[in-house]
Design a protein that fits this description.
Length: about 450
């Protein structure tokens, strides 16, 4: 192992989650001259990062971590030591939606983040660069600076905003070849110097024209704006999926037709059962709260409607199942194929599958939940529901004796199943609800299924 002295810089990341872990693994892989340490208060998580079974599933991550771990990538619970040794500290602790007090259900809960700032202050004896990785309300850097500089000004902390744009399931690819890296700083001499230091880290593998520099507030707000725009596209297409279902227009054809307009672009136009993930809802509600706090109620309402439409889309899916299955699912077995909020991840945070499964169980259905990677999280999400749910990884077994299948995650394996075999094992009439539009609907109809897709007229045998 290389000795500590041979490293050019010590980089620390506080928070070994979905963002901190992969981001630091990529920096370590691309910058062997830096020592990269990731710390977390959660001991179990750290020991998993140090084991053969990482705490998160992400294609390509195992190889990345294995190659750098022990060389210049370290996972540890020694937060205070980590802070003392570090030149650059990334803060990637969670900033969930507040569940209490002022702004409950909307504002960001900054308690972990503030605690971290105080911890940094208490354990620093020299100047440091602090990088906000967590998504934060615009102008948070100011508060962080105030806390950090409450020591009487002997140590200089420069706070930079460097939001993360990676998407789960493609995190390694996104980190390796990002559309852009955004770095915001104060525009003072010290601010610009710190900005340059962080630019130099990314310049080890990202082309200079892809590294965008801005003031710190623009960087903070750009993260919220990016997620709000992405979510808004999903809600826009989902709103029209409802209209397609009753007019015999086909949402895939509409999306293709509008997506070829280069001004609109063809990405993020897939109609679905709804968007999930830890960021979209949280960040939009955060944006809504900030707008309200500045008295910008029209702006707040505009973005709030993106979240409301998404909730409606999830609810509509359950009601659609119910009304088409003769207004009752009580006692009927239903196979939910896919529980993760998107394919290629085991993450289920804010997954539409949670709401839909709960809705079906409340209607007294017997739900078999299936997923190749997310069953551990699914069990946790549904642990309060003692009856009416079974977890079965094999999709064939999960569908046996079922009245209906609901596809809720676009896992590739679900495209390739033997649906004739599945149909033969189901109760008739057999229903399939494709919440991701990934199946061949005509073929399923010919097999004998009654097929309900998002944004398409149903194919029914009666
Ligand atoms: C987090 C934020 O939630 C998000 O706003 C931001 O955009 C990126 O960082 P994520 O990595 O997905 O997202 O969160 P999570 O997987 O929950 O990881 C956060 C980690 O911070 C957890 O492992 C938690 O134990 C750790 N943590 C939290 C600390 O180490 N110290 C604390 O005080 C609080
Ligand atoms: C998102 C942002 O993309 C990323 O830049 C940011 O850093 C974190 O939040 P993530 O939540 O991991 O990433 O996944 P994303 O690919 O954006 O998907 C979010 C949700 O939208 C998923 O549930 C997905 O299934 C859904 N979605 C996405 C659609 O329903 N239709 C689409 O066309 C695209």
């Amino acid at each position: 192992m290389r000795s500590k002295m041979t490293f050019k810089k010590n980089i620390l990341c506080i928070g070994a989650g979905y963002v901190g872990g992969p981001t630091m693994a990529m920096i370590a892989a691309k910058c062997p001259q830096y020592k990269v340490t990731v710390v977390d208060i959660n001991e179990k998580r750290i020991s998993e990062w140090n084991s053969g079974r990482l705490p998160i599933y992400e294609p390509g991550l195992d190889e990345l971590v294995t190659a750098a771990r022990g060389r210049n990538l370290f996972f540890s619970t020694e937060i205070e030591k980590g802070i003392r040794d570090a030149d650059i500290i990334f803060v990637s602790v969670n900033t969930p939606t507040k569940t209490f007090g002022q702004g409950a259900g909307m504002a960001a809960d900054l308690q972990y983040w503030e605690k971290t700032a105080r911890q940094i202050l208490a354990n620093s004896d020299r100047d440091k660069i602090i990088v906000e990785k967590s998504t934060l309300p615009v102008r948070t850097a100011k508060a962080m600076e105030r806390i950090l500089n409450s020591n009487g000004g002997t140590i200089n902390f420069e706070v930079l905003s460097n939001p993360e744009f990676l998407a789960e399931g493609s995190a390694v690819k996104d980190l390796e070849n990002p559309d852009r890296v955004l770095i915001g700083s104060r525009e003072t001499k010290e601010g610009l110097k710190a900005r340059k230091e962080l630019v130099d880290v990314y310049a080890n593998w990202v082309a200079h024209e892809r590294i965008i520099e801005s003031n710190v507030w623009s960087a903070e707000l750009s993260k919220l704006t990016a997620n709000a725009f992405l979510a808004q596209r999903v809600s826009s297409i989902n709103s029209l999926s409802a209209l397609c279902e009753v007019t015999e227009a086909d949402i895939n054809e509409v999306a293709y037709a509008i997506g070829t307009d280069s001004r609109i672009g063809n990405k993020f136009l897939k109609a679905s059962v709804g968007f999930g993930g830890s960021c979209f809802k949280k960040d939009i509600l955060n944006l809504v709260y900030i707008c309200k706090s500045y008295g910008l109620n029209e702006v707040a309402d505009y973005w709030d409607s993106v979240v409301r439409l998404n909730e409606w889309q999830e609810k509509r899916f359950v009601l659609n199942m119910l009304s088409n299955m003769f207004n009752t699912v009580a006692g009927k077995k239903i196979a939910v194929l896919g529980f993760a909020f998107k394919a290629n991840t085991g993450d289920t945070r804010e997954s539409p599958a949670i709401y839909i499964t709960r809705g079906l169980v409340e209607e007294r259905a017997q739900v078999n939940v299936s997923d190749p990677k997310a069953l551990v999280n699914a069990r946790e999400d549904l642990k309060d529901m003692r009856e009416g749910i079974e977890f079965i990884e094999d999709p064939y077994k999960a569908s046996e004796g079922a009245h209906a299948i609901a596809v809720l995650t676009e896992w590739d394996i679900y495209r390739k199943l033997d649906y004739k075999r599945i149909f033969d094992s189901m109760v008739k009439p057999a229903f399939i609800f494709d919440g991701r539009n990934i199946l061949n609907h005509r073929e399923l109809f010919d097999i004998g299924f009654n097929v309900f897709a998002i944004g398409k007229a149903p194919l029914k045998h009666f």
